[in-house]
From TrEMBL:
Name recorded for this polypeptide: ABC transporter ATPase
Pfam families: ABC_tran
UniProt xrefs under InterPro entries: AAA+_ATPase, ABC_transporter-like_ATP-bd, ABC_transporter-like_CS, ABC_transpr_LolD-like, MacB-like_ATP-bd, P-loop_NTPase
Bilayer-spanning residue ranges: none
Domain of life: Bacteria
Assigned keywords, A-Z: ATP-binding, Nucleotide-binding, Transport
Any GO CC annotation of this UniProt entry: plasma membrane
GO molecular function: ATP binding; ATP hydrolysis activity; transmembrane transporter activity
Domain ABC transporter: 4-227
Amino acid sequence: MAVVEASNLVREYRMGTETVRALDGASLTLEGGQFVAVVGPSGAGKSTLLHIVGALDTPTSGSIRVDGTDLSGLTDDEASQFRRTRVGFIFQFFNLVPTLTAWENVALPMLLDSKSLRKARPRAVELLERVGLGDRVAHRPAELSGGQMQRVAIARSLMMEPKILLADEPTGNLDSKTGADVLELLAEVAHDEPDRLVLMVTHDGGAAQVCDRVVTVRDGRIDGRHD
Ligand SMILES: Nc1ncnc2c1ncn2[C@@H]1O[C@H](COP(=O)(O)OP(=O)(O)OP(=O)(O)O)[C@@H](O)[C@H]1O
């Protein structure tokens, strides 16, 4: 079963009397076990697409199913539960909590799910080992490099074992060597589990080399083949 099935997505934003069409009939089907890059000109609708796939935004029309769930039918509470438990998010500026250690940041999704942070420690440490940071579990974000902070964020995105990871410009704040290492790690993570999909919006020219598929968004539509 496809992890993402988007059909004819339209997203309009009202700006006073103007209407901006961020997505204009975007259709896309993505299977798991892949690392997919979303590229395209600035303003094309890439982030809007990613936000709809992550249930952070809802389309004006069209249908979207992610990991078997029809997102258009969710209440606000169900959408927030979906985001917390079924999707991992990775951002350009890492979004780590500065006062928490690396392992606490990784374990945080469990706390939000009413589980104790301490109980989640073994799994958080295991995930930090997985991303090459077994010797940094007690460091706070300020004591880590940019690349290390992004690795912590990747470990955190895996905490709830989601089938889909969404990354918005994950290398945008890293130098090219560190960025290449992070792309390599994301590719490994996508291939670790047979059904896992890593979907990444990027302007990084190195992405095409490590990604299994590159999807181009132009004027709110997916260019070319979309199945
Ligand atoms: N919340 C919003 N309110 C109004 N317009 C918006 C909003 N979000 C996005 N847009 C508009 O929708 C269009 C698509 O934006 P989006 O952020 O998806 O593009 P993008 O391809 O991710 O661009 P970039 O590469 O510059 O990040 C743009 O014209 C943008 O100005």
